[in-house]
Amino acid sequence: MKKLSYLYLSLLAVLSVTSVQAQSRERTLLKGMTLIDGNGGQPINNADILIEGGIISQIGKNINSSGALVINLEGKTVMPALISSHVHVGVIKGNEGSGRFYTRENILSQLKKYQSYGLAHVLAMGTDRPLLFETGLRDSSVNGLLPGARLHSAGYGFNVPDASVSPDSFMGNLYRPAAAAEVPGMMNRLAQLRPEIVKIWVDGSPENKMKPSVYEAILKEAHAHNLRVLAHVYYLSDARKLVDAGIDAFGHSIRDSVVDDRLVARMKVKNIPYIPTLTLDMFAHAYAGKPDWMNDEFFKASLEPGVYEMLSSEKYRSDQKKLAANARSAAAYQIALKNVRKLHEAGIMIALGTDSGAFPIRAQGFAEHLEMELLVQAGLTPLEAITAATRNAARVLRIEKSFGTLEKGKSADLIILGDDPSVDIRNTRKIEGVYKNGKEVSRGITSR
Ligand SMILES: [Zn+2]
């Protein structure tokens, strides 16, 4: 028995060495596609991509196919895999949201879901828990060693003290400094986790806002650790103060007023990216009606069990109609659209993020595709919306050297589409294949 298991182990060792060698020599030629590279230029017809060892080694027309496995993609469109720079993972399950759902299994299952919707990277914005760092889950995922979209993390965000938030709440693991003096110690601990960015909520509620002295301390301490700070915002007045205080990015739309020219100019000078999360505002009011996308399997497949039944029930719909918050969200959405347009036209970088996964009604994977459609509604061209979802989001995550566009030397992370999204942005939903590091990892979910 001992001998047998030894033989078996040796055989396994030989097999795995062989497969590593095969992988390093492997050449795959994707041939004859319409290519959207993520940089915003017009699609290139009849293009080829040569992949070697997971990296794009050549891209262009009529690439020599000798020694390569050739995959004919005539009639298909290829674009970079998507990147969402504002999501939450591991805090929803079924119809509920809670920190109790923050398990390795739940996180990995959500990362796989994102991947099947064509996402290569997601940035979880401030609701993570120790498990992610203590078990090496974040590092393994970022390095592409685990299945699913690669998970980046803002660690534990900063919010205001709030006695009503239980530790079990999905916001239950945040830092909540009452005074600026508490910030340095908290930031020291956060910095040890090497978060991608620091998330702050300045406007928990109009009566309970973060004091300027606290967010100024957060900015100072984060910058001393070479960390950027991204703000959850809603009000124009907060956005103005945060820009003056040195904020590095906005994680939501300004939704109470149209942005003024001075703020736009200041954001431009300081290169502050803007992540509008329009789907958040859409999801916050759309279910009072019957949006056409609700009937699409592409939407239904992105929901946790039981959520579709809740959303499509007459009771839920009529309750939504009665809510004052619903009307407020519909109005906020219209202002959000205007602000994206104004900031985009002024040359501010717009990056895709959705806040998907914070609540069960914010559909993970589907939200990212709807966001691109809403960016087009706001006034971006389809190609500009794709750039927001690929190159620009890669820049927010500071991974643009290897990801976000399809160019020589970058990772072959891409999606194959049945139709061209530069003609109709909804064609990003016609996914026929998802590649990570040059390997097909999912056939994707396809809209009918
Ligand atoms: Zn969020």
Structural overview:
The chain is an alpha/beta fold and 448 residues long. The chain has 15 helices and 16 strands. The chain has two domains: 92 residues, Urease, subunit C, domain 1; 315 residues, Metal-dependent hydrolases (TIM Barrel), CATH 3.20.20.140. Helix 7 links the parallel strand 12 and strand 13. The N terminus is likely disordered. The site of zinc ion (ZN) has 5 residues, from loops.
CATH superfamily of the largest domain: Metal-dependent hydrolases
Query: Number of DSSP helices?
Result: 15
| Total tally of structural domains | 2
Major sheet, described briefly? Answer: 8 strands, mixed
Helix content: 25-40%
Mean pLDDT over the residues:
93
- The fold-level CATH name of the largest domain is TIM Barrel
Apparent shape? globular
Spans of at least 5 consecutive residues whose pLDDT stays below 50 are 1-23
The secondary-structure class comes to: alpha/beta
How many DSSP-defined strands? Answer: 16
Listed once per kind, the bound small molecules are:
zinc ion
Radius of gyration: 22 Å
Q: Span between N and C termini? A: 54 Å
How much strand content do the residues show? 15-25%
Highest-level CATH class of the largest domain:
Alpha Beta
